[in-house]
UniProtKB/TrEMBL annotation:
Keywords: Cell cycle, Cell division. Residues 225-375 form the Fido domain. This is Cell division protein Fic. It comes from Labrys miyagiensis. Coiled coil: none annotated.
Amino acid sequence: MGYAALIDAYDLAVPVPLTLAAIGQRYKIYEADNWRIYTPRHRPDDSLTGHLTFALRYEGLDLCALKALFRQTGPEPIAAMVHAAPTGRFARRVWFLYEWLLQASLDLPDATAGAYALVVDPDQQWAADGTNSTRHRVKNNLPGTPAFCPMIFRTPTLEGFVARNLADQARALVADVPADLLARTAAFLLLKDSRSSFQIEGEDPPQERIQRWGQAIVEAGRRPIDREELLRLQRIVIGDARFVHLGLRTEGGFVGEHDRGTGAPIPDHISARHEDLADLVEGLIVFDRTAARALDPVLAAAMLAFGFVYIHPFEDGNGRLHRFLIHHVLAERGFNPPGVVFPVSAVILDRIDEYRRMLESYSQRLLPLIRWQPTDRNNVVVLNDTADFYRYFDATQHAEFLFSCVARTIDVDLPAETAFLRAYDQFKARVSAIADMPDRLLDLLFRFLRQNGGVLSKRAREKEFAALTDVEAAQIEAIFADVQL
């Protein structure tokens, strides 16, 4: 039923929804193997109108499928649907969606009756506040524009995260932390995030490059996102750009491997066509400036950042810029405490397999729909129109993953680093009362104790800390055990 029936009947080349609908024989709704099974009472008319109404009523909006469907049906069946039920809320929603997605008007007079209907059912999917469309007598609460509008379903997981109000929790967490300690905590978390963002890409750049990228992350949210800003960030990320084309790609792109023998591409993900990049990136920019500001910051960050990484607009640097966009949205919306960067990249690095599976959950569904061939430079050229795959995708899993990463930084990383620095400061102060040594040696002493379970090794006692007496060494070990949390 619904989208499953429409995709099959009209042979739509679109990613199949993660959950499909069918009618069963039991009088109870249940789920099994990515199907939601409805009762015989839910069976719609076996028609375009019947399945479209069923989809909007029970399955929410799949904009990619709807746009492909409207292109297949043409205007007449949709106009007929509205003629048959001019005041019907589902007919008016379909009418609006047809004109909004295709940017084309149906040969219909403006609606004059019927209560204003919401285009997005907010009980099913996250929506914006919306504006009235008087022509259709609907309220357009779509969380984007025709150029870029991912959708996120409401799930118990996301409802739980939003209800926690993580931004307030983070501010409360740092409220009683002394300013100097908070500054050191923030500096460590920033360095950790910057280094991790390169490590995710398999890079181990020099410290200077890591610090430059860290400085860019500190400034996230201070500048509006536009093509010039993205290019500026790409220059920072790449560093040595002698062998990299800066700016939007001028040829195809993919993520994957090359055949060891022939060099032929073996894609895991195929990026948007370079001919579509200008429009797609403009869609991201407009989304960031408008719709993203009406959504929960973490949801908006997931939509923007994962949209960017699927589009993959640059030849290199996409992954780090994708994660920068997360910082940009959170900082711009005041989600993180001033001066504190959530080390999202570090959490992603710890959960790298889950991160890749989540990315592939969409990429792998796209691959069979993209017609491509290799080029003589062992790249890919895409042969069909794929832009809508990157405009309209289900970002639910991405939002759940990002929320869990942000929650871990608040629940674990931020308090753990603050606690560590408190313990370190206590250790230094108490050890200094026993033996006067420079910070360099105090730091080395602390690290040796951490690495050896709180005990100074025989080697350390005989070399770096040979000057300590047995009594002093025992006192220092006792201090270390006391300050550890």
